[in-house]
Amino acid sequence: MKKRIAVLGATGSIGKSSLDIISRESEFFEAVLITAHSKKDELEQLKNKWPSAVCVFSGEEGGEKKLIEAIKNVQPDITINGISGAAGLESSLATIEAGSNLALANKETIVMAGQLVLRLADEKNVKIIPVDSEHSAVFKLIEAHSSLKINEQKINEIILTASGGPFRKLSLKEMENVTAQDALAHPTWKMGPKITIDSASMANKGLEIIEACMLFNMPAEKIKVVVHPQSIVHSMIRLSNGVIYAQLSKPDMRHPIHDALHWPDTAPLNLDTLDFDSLTLEFEKPDTEKFPMLSLASEAVKKGGLYACAYNAANEEAVTAFINKKIRFLDIPKITGIVLEKDWALNYSDKETVLKADSDARLESVKIINKMA
Ligand code: NAD
Ligand code: MG
């Protein structure tokens, strides 16, 4: 039996890579639901290519409801959530409610509402398989750790790698005047615009610190970030005997997507392999003065409650304002920092509380942005 797969955000970077894997591996997989929120014409083309899949365009009136209903009606075996931003949360919740496993690229789901999402997945006996390359690597390393005879060694640390983005070599002074166009030129990964800007400010790694704490149930002190400009080592775990295990491949999101879709099994994949003859790997300490989004994320996750949700909302609003030339690049962490000074120490167990904190944090950010503009 083929696995029936839903691809949410099919016109995006993750969505396209997912459909590529599904067509390469058609003996294992079939696309049963394809959705997008923009680029209707591209979705039409996909509809022609995947005639048996249900197709939903959610970027029009009533579209969001149609999307949630489709997830419930189609009941996929596994759903790839490649939607960008906070908008992905509702679809993740609907996927879990529908009893479908969740291959999760949309890190915002976990950052905003980790507690709620993980509890619901537990209740519904649904597996969340990370697709973010770092978390996919850690997930695989932890699986290997428990199957190899090394599991008497505790996992002491998770080491997330970060490319460092396009501004790694700039001084703080030089970063003052960078434009959205500069930020959109990522050195190693080709991704959607929001995550690319986040990589330039290292907010993406901030979100990933939070994601790792939640997914792997580790305190922020045990999540380390190391800058690795080549994006070959996807992440590492350090065991209590001091040994570090790492996962390496060329930077290509089809690796983690393929792994997630096959889970709990594994299967071969023929992509370009790494050639060690022409490879230099560098590692350096992240500069938290240039990239305050890193420490803001660790603080947010340590404070708990809905601080992480507020971090995500404030950053999303600031990134939109930066793309629209309302603020400067270095205002992104300033705005996020100010929003996080408010009290977000709310206990939550329901979606409504999360969405209210998300919208309150956005209102706060917009107030600050309007004062700056
Ligand atoms: P993208 O901008 O390329 O694509 C986003 C997709 O989501 C599009 O199909 C769009 O139509 C859809 N979408 C946008 N808003 C929506 C809404 N309100 N409702 C429903 N659908 C909506 O983004 P991307 O780079 O593919 O990233 C998607 C997610 O995956 C993000 O959360 C990102 O952080 C994560 N991620 C991406 C990569 C990558 O390599 N691109 C790597 C790791 C994690
Ligand atoms: Mg990542």
Structure overview:
This protein folds into 3 domains: 3-130, Rossmann fold (3-Layer(aba) Sandwich), CATH 3.40.50.720; 133-252 and 273-302, no CATH class; 304-373, Orthogonal Bundle (Rna Polymerase Sigma Factor, Chain: A), CATH 1.10.1740. It has a 6-stranded parallel beta sheet with strand order 3-2-1-4-5-6, sandwiched between helices. It has a 4-stranded mixed beta sheet with strand order 8-7-9-10, with helices on one face. β4, α4 and β5 form a beta-alpha-beta unit. The N and C termini lie far apart (56 Å). Helix content is 47%, strand content 14%. It has helices at residues 13-24, 40-49, 63-74, 88-97, 108-123, 133-147, 172-175, 180-183, 193-201, 203-216, 254-262, 293-303, 307-323, 331-340, 351-372, and strands at residues 3-8, 29-36, 54-57, 78-81, 101-104, 128-130, 155-162, 223-227, 233-239, 244-248. The chain has 373 residues and is α/β, with parallel strands linked by helices. Residues 9-15, 36-38, 58, 82-84, 87-88, 105-108, 132, 189, 191-192, 195, 253 line the site of nicotinamide-adenine-dinucleotide.
Distance between the termini: 56 Å
Strand content range: 5-15%
- Spatial ordering of strands, largest sheet: 3-2-1-4-5-6
Average of pLDDT = 96
Number of strand elements: 10
Number of domains: 3
Q: Main sheet, how many strands, which sense, barrel?
A: 6 strands, parallel
Counting H and I runs of at least 4 residues, what is the number of helices?
15
**Fraction of residues in helices?**
40-55%
The low-confidence runs, each spanning 5 or more residues with pLDDT under 50, are: none
Shape category: globular
Each distinct ligand: nicotinamide-adenine-dinucleotide, magnesium ion
Structural class by helix and strand composition: alpha/beta
Question: What integer value in Å does the Rg equal?
Answer: 20 Å
